[in-house]
Amino acid sequence: MVAIFTGACYTTPLIGAIIADSLLGRFRTILAFSTIYLLGIFLLTLSSWPPAGGVPGPGEDPTWWSYTILFSALGVIALGTGGIKPNVSAFGADQFNLARTQDRREKESFFNAFYASINLGSLIACTAVVYVQDQVSWTLGFAIPGFAMLLAICIFLAGRSVYVHVPPTESPVLRVIRVIGAALKNRRRKKKQLSPPSTVSHDDSLRAGQRGLTAAGRQTANGGNRADVPVLTASMSHKWLDDAITEWHTSQGQHMRIEGLTGYSPQQVEEVKLVLRLLPVFLSSILYWCERIIMSPDACGGPRSLSPPR
């Protein structure tokens, strides 16, 4: 159960990221999924409450009602995590304009404090909260993070008028899927319309696409908060993705365009190539994390009794 719950908490962020980037924006996504997360903590607290079944004593089996509430709580918490985990740090980064030196320094300070707070919270959870659960009450132990989450939501809402809100555009996940789909779809049709293919200079086409994209990168969101989009150089890896490019310049400077095909700029295709080159690193870490979850069934270090305190 621990492995399934942990896996769900690391899978649902893909959903939360897509929703934030394509539909709701980061602020509303964080707010909505934080509320869902709070509901999950409430259900988890309810599952340990004696009138609702509570934590079974020695030799006792949990009731079906306790199981139902517990598994529902874990599912809701995993769903809430999906909207919080991928967006909180990104929303914090949105508040800084990297074109200003002072903002770059403040951004570093922000993330230092942010990750220090996360580690401090983990320390408190694995010491003080665990002590309350073991020695006082599981219900109170679950209620403490619930109150902390409620306070965090209230503080987050209090600053809504001063935040920088970057509007949703397109999810990078969907962009990768669409570029790959366009490359596969265009492959045959592009070969029929382009003759000879040797006239295409991929490096020239990339520079041509970069001019428009870099200019778009200078367009800022909400009063000049985004830095310029980094300009990528042409790469020779994953050449099959170049079929998604439908507009380029030849080495002789001639402008070429294939009509009737879904296409993307050379810069966008290069960004997808970067993602694909990172996939082996991501895939190589799966076995490590699977083994770590199996070897560490309790995140706070070792098995603990579920029996109520004496």
TrEMBL record:
It comes from the Eukaryota. It is found in: Membrane. Keywords: Membrane, Transmembrane, Transmembrane helix, Transport. InterPro entries: MFS_trans_sf (IPR036259), POT_fam (IPR000109), PTR2_symporter_CS (IPR018456). Its main location: membrane. It is a multi-pass membrane protein. Signal peptide: none annotated. GO terms for biological process: oligopeptide transport. One of its GO terms (cellular component) is membrane. The chain crosses the membrane at residues 30-52, 64-84, 110-132, 138-158. It holds the Pfam family PTR2. GO terms for molecular function: transmembrane transporter activity. SUPFAM superfamilies: MFS general substrate transporter. Belongs to the major facilitator superfamily. Proton-dependent oligopeptide transporter (POT/PTR) (TC 2.A.17) family. PANTHER family: OLIGOPEPTIDE TRANSPORTER-RELATED. This is Major facilitator superfamily (MFS) profile domain-containing protein. It comes from Chlamydomonas euryale. The lineage of its organism: Eukaryota, Viridiplantae, Chlorophyta, core chlorophytes, Chlorophyceae.
